[in-house]
Task: structure prediction
Amino acid sequence: KNQVEQSPQSLIILEGKNCTLQCNYTVSPFSNLRWYKQDTGRGPVSLTIMTFSENTKSNGRYTATLDADTKQSSLHITASQLSDSASYICVVRVGGSTLGRLYFGRGTQLTVWP
Amino acid sequence: DVKVTQSSRYLVKRTGEKVFLECVQDMDHENMFWYRQDPGLGLRLIYFSYDVKMKEKGDIPEGYSVSREKKERFSLILESASTNQTSMYLCASRRRQVINQPQHFGDGTRLSIL
Result:
């Protein structure tokens, strides 16, 4: 069964600290994995995409990793800011078709305290 | 920048009413999607469309229908609203022929059925 599991469900950290969010998936065949950030009251916005051949990709203070063998991805946030408070959603696409369906994780709710 | 606009941010309707949620995108995207987002469940796909007048059922189409008369507009219809359709509804669009393109989301319509 195709699934995407995220952990932790929620996380509270102090401003300036680092954190790592996890995503495990059983989706097959794998096409790509994307991390979205969803601010409260807004729609999700893409942070980064990982394809099969990529291990690490950075977008500013966000660094995503992918281990295709163990089917795990992580999103590391460095030097957190109050504006990082949001839900982070892991999304995996099946196969290589342009109509390949998406599997969504339930998200990790991150709260950054001053 | 891609803009996906949902006509209402908040909507309150009564049980049994026919409800229309409208979504417009300005980037000439072929694919459009309707999701609902509930706490603890993540995003679930209701319907999608890959061309004008084309529609496909997603994972939870019961109680919903859609209309795509023009490429830029995708409407979600609740035929006879029920309280269990109280939710956040998100519309998204995506260019079809490019596999690694993200879905671009609107900011959602929070619908309450009384």
Q: What stands out?
A: The first strand of chain A starts at residue 4 and ends at 7. The mean pLDDT of chain A is 93.
